[in-house]
Each structure stands twice: as C-alpha cells, then as structure tokens.
Amino acid sequence: MTRDFGIEPDNRHFACMVDLLGRSGRLKEAERFIDSMPIDPDSLVWTSLLAACKLHGDVELGKVAAEKVMELAPGRSGTYISLSNIFADVGKWKEAVEIRRRMSRIGVIKEPGWSFT
Known about the structure:
Elements: H1 2-5, H2 11-23, H3 27-35, H4 43-56, H5 59-72, H6 77-89, H7 93-106
Helix pairs in contact: 2-3, 2-4, 3-4, 4-5, 4-6, 5-6, 6-7
Organism: Linum tenue
GO cellular component, one term: cytoplasm
Protein name: Pentatricopeptide repeat-containing protein
C-alpha cells in the first residue's frame, strides 16, 4: 500500500480488513490478522472483531475482543452491551447479567437510544 499508493496504513485500514474478514465468517483469520499487525491494534480494530463475533455467535473470541476494547477504552458502554448481548443470544443469561453488573460496579452508563422520527 505504501509502495504502490504512497499511503501508510493505520488502524482504520486494519479495522476495515478485520471487518471484511469478520463479516465473511473468517473470525480466526481476522484474529490472526490482528496478531500480525505491524502496529498496535486500537479499540476500533478490536471493536470490529467484536461486532463480527456478535454476528456469528462466537462467544469465546467475543470475550477476548471485548476485554481488549475494555482495556483500551474502558468507559465505552457499547462494548459491555455487545458482550452481554452475545451471551444472551446463545442463552448464557448468567454471564449476560454479570456483564451488566460489572458495568454498574465500575460506573459505565448505557446511553439511552433515540431516533429522529
């Protein structure tokens, strides 16, 4: 990319690749891609993987991705909600509730949704 187009790839470019791999169900390949990145992945990269895990119901990799996002951006409520929803989607209600309790314990507040209708 740098040689051909003069563009130095950053985390946004890598997040797009993770999103493409993840949406196509290639979650392990997306994880390996993250592990091989020449720069440290940021929360956007890990959030892309988390979204793909939600889409495909991969609880274990979803937990890994969520923990990485929580380390990098601890106050982001969407991460906790996504992980809780992954657990709920596969019937792991105890784990889903525990994530919501964890949010409360550390003071992360879910912003209410709204629309323009």
